[in-house]
């Protein structure tokens, strides 16, 4: 199985500016799903550099860092589960309506229906990994359009 050309995993307080390929910000409760996403990229997104940004801890400094990264990435993958913090909710709330945001919500989350109704969301999956294929397709489409213009 082939591996990715370059996988850059960036956590606070580091600053890193991607050269090529998509930049993806991971926001949400827990770290287990974030590590699964990184593992997915190691083997399933080849022929491109990928930069993944996420914070392991929730504090004010990391919230500021995440907000700054969210402004500059190509995709935001947000995950809501039982242990999602108020800081994560605040950041997800800011970016939830943005077209570059993909949201996954654990099926055991109690207010799932409320979120659907409140935000009229259609970009929701139960598993964060489910969104990665869509992101890859979008990225390849963008890359193809850029090539055609040159």
Mean pLDDT: 78
- The count of helical stretches stands at 5
**Derived structural class:** alpha/beta
CATH class: Alpha Beta
The proportion of residues in beta strands is: 15-25%
Percent of residues in helices: 40-55%
Residue ranges: pLDDT <50 for 5 or more in a row? Answer: none
How would you describe the overall organization of this protein?
Helix 2 (60-72) packs parallel to helix 3. The protein has one domain (6-149): 3-Layer(aba) Sandwich (Rossmann fold). The model has no long low-confidence stretch (mean pLDDT 78). The protein contains 5 helices and 6 strands; from the N terminus they run ββαβαβαβαβα. The chain is α/β, with parallel strands linked by helices. It has a 6-stranded parallel sheet, with helices on both faces. The chain is globular, with a radius of gyration of 15 Å.
Brief synopsis:
The chain has a single domain (6-149), classed as 3-Layer(aba) Sandwich (Rossmann fold), CATH 3.40.50. Helix content is 43%, strand content 19%.
Topology:
Layout lengths: L5 E5 L12 E6 L3 H13 L4 E5 L6 H13 L2 E6 L5 H10 L5 E5 L6 H8 L4 E2 L4 H20 L1
Parallel strand pairs: 1-3, 2-3, 2-4, 4-5, 5-6
